[in-house]
Fold:
Amino acid sequence: MNTEKRLRAWIPLLITLGIAIGILIGNTYSVFNFSSGRLGSSKFNSVLRYIDESYVDSIDMAAFLEEAIPNIVEGLDPHSRYFTSEQMMRLTEDLEGHFSGIGVEFFVQRDTIVVMGIIDGGPSEAAGIMPGDRIVTVNDSLVAGKAITNAGVAENLRGESGSKVTLGIYREPNPNLIEITVTRGDIPVNSVEAAYMITEEIGLIKVVKFGANTFNEFISAISKLKSQGCKSFIVDLRGNEGGYLDAATSMTNEFLPKGNLIVYAEGRNFPRKDNYATGTGTCKTDDLIVLIDELSASSSEIFAGAIQDNDRGLIIGRRSYGKGLVQSQRVYEDGSAMRLTVARYYTASGRSIQRSYEKGKNTEYQMEAVYRYMQGDYENDIDSLNMTPYKTVAGRTVYGGSGIMPDIFIPRDSTVMNSYYNSIMGKGYVQEYAAYYTDINRRKLEKFESYTDLNDYLKIQPLLLNLVSYADSKGIRRRPYLINESRDLLESLLRGFIVRHFWGYDGYYPVFLESDDLVNKAVELLETGKASTSAIVNEEYK
Structure:
């Protein structure tokens, strides 16, 4: 595959998943003290006064500083950042696990807001909004047909708890708008999106972030699965960009015996701080496999690195992102904040999680995932060739200095993400057709008593054929060879999106991951006993 084709294949995934950009960890430090004369403050203040007093045009100095400060901070390293008050509010909501809104999941399709899911027990469910609904107006203001963004939609739909918003809803096959008034309320933001049994003894937990409520959600997931007979766990951290350190260490503690080193941090003015397992975990003897990929970052890497270095479980997938910098946060009176890198994280074996970077080359740093893809890192196990070897507690060789290298490398199947797949996904036609199919078949589909029954029914329906016809009517011509290459993935996505309308993520993930290479490999290793502690120490998984 040439460079151009690789880049085209990667773009949709990059857009969908994004890149981790900085994690809220550590204590509050006084960073700048302009009265002390440190850090060139006299010169800095002199420059500001000179601009304020003598510049040819009048300047709003507050606005000027809001633009200047990010450039100063971001020039230090890729993860030191300045956030405006608005940005901080969104970040806090995301990690604290709640916000005030109407309780829907949506995507923007051709300037139209399409409802993908409804939060159970939320305001929209109570008001009668349904998956597949199109939001055309918000408080009598037309939003469909305009250049709207996800952020813009969120701004319109969120608001103070108890406030009301009136939505104009288009719902197939009714040609007229339905007017629905929703009373906003507190909406939970779950970081554990699914926990389900794959076999009679193996359970999977999907963790998408590390927030304030993650550990409680994780413990609830463990309890749920153990009540169903779970004896071995798969923790899926693919695409998880990290979050709070405490959430990661608390999760790790569930699997490690007392005294095992989880992680330590150290910096120039940051004395080494070690974090050890307390021995109070509930899963210290249960077999464990952790799934990671190139977008697993920060707290995800801390969890995976601790499990690997202590020979407690197997890591499967592809080399992680490599974000191991510790940020200290200083919050200002206006609600803005600065996160400054003060230390680096190291795993128990002494591996630095952070990959290398050059000051002033943040774009190149953020694009590394794309570069890795184009040079074949996701298809061939070549990462370890350029990484430093370390030893685990039991003496196994692991690699560090640039993320977490898995014990078992599973390549990404790039052939399925061909030009046809990229076109149809880029236009949002898979989600759109899934919503359309749900709309016209709702009465039949909602009668199924389980997601497995619904999934079995969907497997014998000509979903892919209908999707191809639907996309063809929208201008994406049929390409049989490429369609066949992407067949399994497209069918899994279609069935997953349809099931999600009725069963949420608890239905979506079992359907979508049914044929997943990493999940199937994990199940194989667990069922054959090759993920036990003794088998890991003896490297029977190789």
Summary: Residues 1-39 have pLDDT under 50 and may be disordered. Residues 487-512 form the longest helix (26 residues). The CA atoms of residues 239 and 295 lie 5 Å apart. The domain at 98-188 is CATH 2.30.42.10 (Pdz3 Domain).
